[in-house]
Design a protein that fits this description.
Blueprint (H helix, E strand, L loop, with lengths): L1 H20 L1 H12 L9 H12 L11 E2 L30 H11 L46 E2 L2 H7 L29 E12 L2 E9 L3 E3 L26 E6 L2 E3 L13 E7 L8 H17 L10 E12 L11 E9 L4 E9 L22 E5 L6 E3 L16 E3 L2 E2 L1 E5 L5 E2 L11 E2 L1 E3 L2 E3 L5 E5 L9 E5 L2 E4 L1 E4 L2 E5 L7 E9 L6 E8 L8 E3 L12 E5 L11 E10 L6 E13 L3 E4 L16 E8 L2 H5 L6 E3 L3 E2 L1 H12 L3 H13 L16 H5 L5 E3 L19 E5 L10 E4 L37 H16 L6 H10 L12 E6 L3 E3 L5 E3 L4 E8 L6 E9 L11 E10 L5 E5 L10 E5 L2 E3 L8 E4 L2 E4 L9 E6 L4 E7 L2 E8 L7 E2 L28 H7 L27 H4 L12 H4 L5 H11 L3 H10 L2 H22 L14 E3 L9 E6 L3 E4 L3 E3 L15 E4 H41 L6 E2 L3 H12 L25 E2 ...
Helix pairs in contact: 8-9, 9-11, 11-12, 16-17, 17-18
């Protein structure tokens, strides 16, 4: 019995399902039957034989190579239809079909056209014949073409005429039949009882930030990607605010309203079956079959011409969904004839996605559930038109049509590709409208334009869509402060050419139509010339040389026009600042009529005879533009390509040579130096460079990578050859300057004092300084004019050791060392979540909501960094009572507010993080937009990342915030300079180098908590810093933008109680010991990692928690480590250092250039205390050899003048004082200075004779009181006080005979007689060539009158007598010789007796000595001669020791 009941129920339900499923199909057959012409009701066999040849006329042949296919018109005559009565609905003729096709449709449905049973369809069910007699001439053919995708070489090539033909219809293809008896694109499974159907796409479809590989086709006018809400509340509002409690589907809605399949009249021209159609064409880029090529080309050109910014788009996959003759749900039976027809076309290359909405017929606006009338479908809330990203994220409603009464105007608006009723959108990341909007008015209307960025120099062609344009009304475009007139292209598009803008970053972009105000607005990004997208490429570095032979350039010709025969012009422009207004000036035409081939070679020798009036321009740009743009584009405007800034030495070098001479680089450099010395000093406010590359990389608040020398993106480093990485200050300082720090391969700072490639501070920042329209403040241009330009003329075009280059390096742009550098303080948050404060305190706080991470309490320097924490997703055991960081917001004192948000899981395929600037999303995927500057803040992503998974925010106060994402897990770090010590509060604590006061509450008190007690931290400290949308004293106001109306209270939950237990073994059940062991295995000693894994059971989260923790600890250790540096050790001019290290232990040796001599210490050492050792021989410098020789000579002269002369003066003064003292004691005292002791001893021997060398007789009395002066110029005598002058005498006689020749006993050999002597003396005095002869003195006359004995006694002795040397002197005086030449020596006798008071050694002690004066005054006494010894007189040297006559001198004072 039970079995019978179950069987009966099963049959009943099956029958009911079949009835419901066939409801629409029955109505279709009824309509088809009504549409049959009575003339066709004949025998089926007869009709089959007669009609097939008329319907299928063209037989396409398969081709193996590309051919140009020309479709011939069909010869089938149209069957005249039976007159039909007038009806209320008039069909649109543009999408109608011919009566022939109506016949064809009927025959297909009734089985008249069937494939032969023996016809082979191939393994995939496709006809091998690509055409199989298909009628390609009918664009609305209801029969699908042979669907045989081909990717073979060759294939179909579409002609321009065919492309124009297929693009002439509003609606794309949709078929309710195929050539094999199928239903074509018609989805018979979609009906009233099953409103949606799942479709696998098998490719990536980007939509609204997410990515999908499937979709669901709904009868209700949309493609969805998740389940719709359980119920709908009108008017519809998306996203659903209660998500995830309520479902929030992602969908593309062309007509989001409850629908049902309608009916058509038998008189309707288009008799295709009412319902939903779906067609999918994949891999179109490589398709070569006819239908694939036509779908690709039609879609590509419709999107390229219809949507701005899609000029290079090529569709890879196309989805065509069509809703034909659908009616509203809830209407009466007659309402089934009140239908709408619309179509959605999606095209994607798996990166960009575009949507085309084609509205063919709209007869109703709302369903009965939304309040619509059951008969007409009017009234109530109209359908929703727009897009929803789902998951509670974002939505876009197409205003003013969606859910408004003007929704019926969709068929007459849009004007996409010139069609009323076509509306285009770009929908991959953001929704950008591609069609005009006429029915909207407000003070701030959205403007769609592309490109959204352009070079500051101008020339970028901006395509604009927004309002519907009128060719009779003027369009004005307003770029920042400049206005230009727009050029009308179509109702849907206007073009404006960006002018020269003296600005950078995001500026206002507005347009006005006619006399209206500027109400259509957007933001336009101005690229600085140094960072702009490179459009002209230099194949080599020749353009930077002084006199290159040639310069090769290239460009993409499609950036100008797609016409390869177009003519272009290459011109040269320059820049200078001689007044307060910047001047960008035209210089010359490089090439006037060049074909747009994409390459050109410049020969500088072609311009050597130019004589430009503005040849003082030293740097500039190359420009390329079309010469006659109207010939190729039909418009009078041309895009302009600009090069990067380049020096102009290659063009002006000969002119400068004629003007300044061969040393023109030196002249240019000196002119610049002269002007630069008049400008203000700019280095005082610059931050100091870090000592090492590691420090520079982790100083996120002050330094960012320099794009001219970046280890990740541009390692060429043209102006810093030996560097591997450079950083520059992120924002300009108060004076507008920029710091640059470059590092060598060892990671040490490079200095200009060491080499020409060192770091150089810059007077002007690349970003410029407000106001940008003044000289010295223009982005890039002022930087090049003041800082880059002189590097070429002073160093690059001169020798490194030249005076100009060293002046540039050492004086005008010297590097600043790192001696005073202070690394920033770092704090961070990671995991679920764990904190490390600035002072190193570690704790865990699982707050839910928005909290203050760090804020400044100082009034002069304000900043705030806030974090949003949301609950961790569920694991396999249910809810996880822990939170994680999902967003950060930050702001300076008056800066732009920056937000960084974690994107949903399936939206991270392209961008991992969302970045908002004042609530507007910004992206960094374009190379020129990697670094974006806003008011007081710079935001950038590393150049090696393309998915925005790391974002760095730099404030002008030096505060930096770094946000990093990996696999959906986010960490935030804050970097603070030392100016914020003792000025911070929040969850990151007070930075005071003292962990005691870290946990400061908003009221300034210190929370007393146990760091291991998570509950105390949660209630007594963490929750105190929770934010709200209102201002809380000491806490502030939340900075987060409120998308979709979600306030701070949406993210917070007071009832949320996290897990307060620290270790997994303490909070996991005992039966989960494996999870505890796994946590230990993954994490080791990190309790943060163990906690996160125990809570979430997510190994990825545990891994990145440990990774973030280790990274933060390493950064803190690096920044806390004191780097000892000795600072700059200047390289001597005209010299070099053999190494450039400045760390302790470094030993630096010096060398000088050729022609120079090194002075001072040749080697210096860096000590452990951070100081260079004190130089022992002075500071090192290089001196030219000629100056060195002069210096040595001057030093010698100085020694003589400074030492010897004062010494002589002292000696003379001493002698004089001594003489005065002696004369005071004994007025008769005279002093004799012996020439030498040896000479005196020899003379004593001669005075005593050969056998007697004593100077006294037997009684001790001196033998003679007469003495001779040894001086050959002056002779004095002790006899009387009157000195007598003696002339210099020759020691040779007139005959040249030497007088010092003696025999063995001392007798002179060949001596002349005494008479002869006197005669010779007389002759000698008369001889004019005797240089030393003088007239005889009076003493000679006295001697002549004296007896010979007295003369002998008088000549016998002189204690200081210097006799003539036998070797060197021509006269040897012999006292005992009978004929002695008296000029041989002069006896000198001291004028006192103190030398002789002591008796000689041969006299007894009691002997009495006789004074000289007594001997002279008394009569001659006969005494025994006693030979003198050293005790009684000076020793006599050997004969050979006597000096030459030229040095025989004796002075008596």
């Amino acid at each position: 019995m039970r079995f019978k009941i179950v069987l009966a129920l099963t049959l009943a339900f099956t029958l009911a399902g079949l009835v419901i499923a066939n409801e629409n199909y029955s109505s279709e057959l009824e309509n088809d039957t009504q549409a049959i012409d009575t003339k066709l009701k004949l025998s089926k066999d007869a009709e089959l034989v007669e009609m097939i040849p008329e319907i299928v006329q063209e037989q396409a042949k398969p081709t193996l190579k590309p051919v140009t296919t020309t479709v011939a018109p069909t010869t089938t005559k149209a069957t005249t239809p039976k007159p039909i009565p007038n009806v209320a609905i008039e069909p649109r003729m543009r999408n109608g079909v011919t009566p022939k096709n109506m016949t064809h449709n009927f025959l297909q449905r009734t089985g008249a056209l069937k494939a032969s049973q023996d016809f082979y369809l191939g393994e995939l069910g496709f006809d091998v014949d690509t055409d199989n007699g298909y009628d390609w001439s009918n664009n609305n053919n209801p029969v699908a073409p042979p669907n045989t995708p081909s990717h073979a070489a060759g294939g179909y090539t579409i002609t321009a005429q065919r492309l124009q033909q297929i693009r002439s219809n509003l609606m794309y293809w949709y078929f309710d039949q195929d050539m094999y008896g199928g239903r074509g694109d018609y989805q018979s499974d979609i009906h009233a009882s099953m409103t949606q159907l799942h479709k696998n796409l098998n490719f990536r479809l980007p939509f609204f930030g997410f990515i999908y590989n499937y979709t669901r086709l709904s009868l209700n006018g949309y493609l969805e990607f998740s389940d719709p809400p359980e119920y709908l509340t009108y008017p519809l509002v998306f996203p659903i605010k209660d998500w995830p409690k309520r479902r929030d589907p992602a969908f593309i809605g062309i007509w989001f309203s409850k629908c049902r399949v309608g009916r058509i009249y038998p008189t309707d021209i288009d008799q295709r079956t009412p319902g939903v159609y779906f067609r999918l064409e994949r891999d179109l880029i490589t398709r070569t079959d006819r239908f694939g090529v036509e779908v690709r080309e039609r879609t590509m050109w419709d999107i390229r011409e219809g949507v701005v910014g899609a000029e290079t788009f090529i569709p890879k996959h196309v989805v065509i969904a069509t809703w034909k003759n659908v009616s509203f749900a809830g209407g009466i039976d007659n309402a089934l004839y009140r239908t709408n027809t619309f179509q959605m076309v999606l095209a994607t290359d798996e990166v960009y996605t575009y949507a085309i909405y084609n509205y063919d017929l709209l007869r109703w606006s709302s369903n009965t559930e939304a309040g619509g009338d059951t008969t007409t479908g009017e009234g109530g809330v109209p359908a929703f038109v727009g897009f929803n990203a789902g998951n509670g994220t974002r939505s876009y409603e197409y205003t003013p049509y969606s859910q408004q009464m003007v929704i019926r105007d969709l068929t007459g608006r849009g004007w996409g590709n010139g069609f009323p009723g076509r509306h285009l959108f770009r929908i991959d990341e953001q929704i950008l409208i591609g069609s005009c909007n006429k029915d909207i008015d407000a003070s701030h209307l959205p403007l769609t334009f592309a490109p959204e960025a352009g070079n500051m120099l101008g020339g970028t062609v901006v395509n604009i869509t927004g309002p519907c344009f009128d060719p009779k009304k003027r369009v004005t475009c307003h770029f920042d402060t400049e206005d230009v007139l727009g050029t009308y292209v179509s109702t849907n598009r206007v073009i404006c050419v960006q002018p020269f803008l003296k600005a950078e970053g995001w500026v206002r972009f507005e347009i006005s139509i006619g006399n209206q105000r500027f109400k259509w607005r957007g933001k336009y990004f101005v690229e600085t010339p140094a960072l702009a997208t490179e459009k002209i490429f230099f194949e080599t570095e020749d353009v930077h040389q002084k006199s290159p032979d040639q310069i090769q350039i290239s460009w993409d010709p499609y950036n100008l026009t797609s016409n390869g025969n177009a003519n272009i012009m290459i011109s040269l422009w320059g820049y200078r600042e001689v007044t307060i207004y910047p001047q960008l000036e035209y210089i010359d035409v490089i090439e006037a009529g060049l074909t747009n081939t994409g390459s050109y070679v410049i020969y500088p020798n072609n311009y050597i005879n130019r004589n430009n009036y503005n040849n003082d321009l030293q740097f500039g740009f190359l420009q390329i533009n079309l010469t006659n743009p109207q010939q190729y584009s039909g418009l009078k405007i041309s895009p302009t390509l600009w090069s990067r800034p380049i020096p102009l030495g290659w063009y002006f070098n000969k002119q400068w040579e004629r003007k300044h001479g061969l040393r023109w680089p030196q002249a240019l450099c000196e002119n610049w130096m002269r002007n630069d010395r008049y400008l203000r000093t700019f280095t005082g406010d610059l931050p100091l460079c870090p000592c090492t590359l590691e420090q520079a990389v982790y100083d996120k608040g002050r330094y960012r990578p320099d794009k001219e020398c970046d280890k990740d993106s541009n390692p060429t480093c043209l102006q810093h050859k030996n560097a591997i990485h450079c950083v520059v200050s992120g924002t300009p300082v108060a004076e507008g300057a920029e710091q640059q720090c470059c590092y060598d391969r060892y990671g040490y700072l490079m200095l200009t004092q060491d080499q020409v490639w060192g770091s150089r501070p810059r007077r002007n920042h690349n970003l410029g300084k407000m106001p940008w329209n003044e000289a010295g403040k223009v982005p890039t241009l002022s930087n090049w004019f003041h800082d880059m330009r002189p590097w070429y003329s002073c160093c690059h075009w001169q020798q490194e050791q030249s005076v100009n280059c060293e002046t540039f390096r050492f004086e005008r742009r010297p590097s600043q060392d790192c001696v005073g550098y202070q690394a920033p303080g770092v704090a961070g948050v990671f995991g679920d979540p764990h904190f490390i404060t600035f002072d190193g305190t570690q704790y865990t706080f699982n707050g839910l909501g928005e909290f203050v991470l760090s804020r400044s309490i100082a009034a002069d320097q304000r900043f705030e960094v806030q974090g949003r924490f949301e609950q961790v997703p569920k694991n396999q055991y249910g809810q996880v009572m822990a939170t994680q960081l999902t967003a950060m917001a930050m702001r300076g004192n008056t800066t732009t507010t920056i937000e960084v948000l974690l994107r949903p899981k399936f939206a991270r395929w392209r961008y991992a993080l969302d970045v908002l600037a004042d609530g507007r999303r910004i992206y960094f995927d374009r190379e020129s937009m990697r670094f974006q500057h806003f008011d007081g803040v710079t935001v950038y992503t590393p150049t090696y990342l393309l998915n925005q998974s790391q974002v760095v925010v730099m404030f002008d106060s030096g505060v930096g915030v770094e946000v990093v994402e990996n696999e959906g897990f986010m960490t935030g770090r804050v970097y603070l300079p030392w100016t914020f010590i003792n000025k911070t509060a929040g969850l990151f604590g007070n930075w005071s180098f003292n962990a005691i006061d870290d946990l400061v509450l908003p009221d300034g008190t210190i929370a007393s908590v146990n760091l291991n007690n998570f509950q105390q931290i949660y209630y007594n400290f963490g929750l105190k810093w929770m934010l709200a949308d209102r201002n809380i004293p000491g806490v502030g106001t939340a900075l987060f933008s409120r998308e979709n109306g979600r306030t701070a209270s949406y993210y917070s939950n007071a009832s949320f109680v996290p897990n307060f237990t620290k270790e997994p073994q303490d909070f996991l059940p005992s039966n989960r010991s494996y999870d505890v062991e796994r946590a230990e295995e993954l994490c080791g000693e990190s309790y943060q990692c163990r906690y996160d894994y125990g809570m979430t059971l997510n190994s990825d989260m545990a891994h990145f928690t440990k990774n973030y923790y280790d990274s933060l600890v390493n950064i803190r250790n690096l920044n806390s480590k004191r780097i000892v540096s000795c600072g700059v050790l200047e390289t001597p001019r005209f010299g070099r250092k053999l190494s450039f290290d400045f760390m302790p232990g470094a030993k630096i040796a010096f060398e000088c250039d050729e022609g120079f001599v090194i002075m001072g210490d040749q080697r210096r050492e860096c000590m452990a205390n951070g100081l260079w050792n004190v130089p022992e021989f002075g500071y090192t410098y290089c001196l030219r050899e000629v100056f060195y020789t002069r210096r040595v000579a001057f030093i010698a002269i100085a020694i003589i003048v400074g030492v010897i002369l004062p010494l002589m003066v002292c000696i003379v003064c001493g002698i004089y004082r001594f003489r005065q003292k002696q004369l005071k004691e004994d007025p008769a005292w005279q002093m004799t200075i012996p020439r030498s002791r040896a000479s005196s001893r020899s003379n004593l021997r001669q005075l005593s004779g050969p056998d007697d060398d004593s100077d006294t007789d037997a009684t001790g009395t001196l033998k003679k009181t007469k003495k001779w002066d040894l001086d050959d110029e002056d002779v004095t005598s002790s006899e009387g006080d009157k000195p007598r002058q003696m002339g210099r005498r020759s020691l040779r006689d007139n005959s040249g005979t030497d007088h010092d020749q003696h025999d063995e006993d001392g007798t002179a050999i060949d001596e002349p007689a005494q008479g002869q002597e006197h005669e010779e003396q007389g002759q000698a005095h008369d001889t004019t060539n005797a240089a030393y002869h003088q007239p005889p003195s009076p003493e000679t006359d006295d001697e002549r009158n004296m007896p010979q004995h007295s003369v002998n006694l008088q000549r016998q002795y002189s204690p200081t007598f210097s006799g003539a040397d036998s070797r060197n002197s021509s006269v040897n005086y012999q006292p005992n010789a009978a004929l002695q030449n008296r000029f041989g020596g002069v006896p000198v006798l001291p004028n006192n007796t103190q030398f002789f008071n002591r008796p000689p050694s041969n006299i007894p002690a009691g002997g009495t000595g006789i004074s000289l004066r007594q001997a002279n005054n008394g009569a001659p006494q006969t005494t025994t001669a006693v030979p003198l010894t050293q005790d009684t007189g000076l020793p006599s040297p050997p004969y050979a020791a006597s000096p030459t006559p030229s040095v025989q001198r004796s002075t008596e004072v």
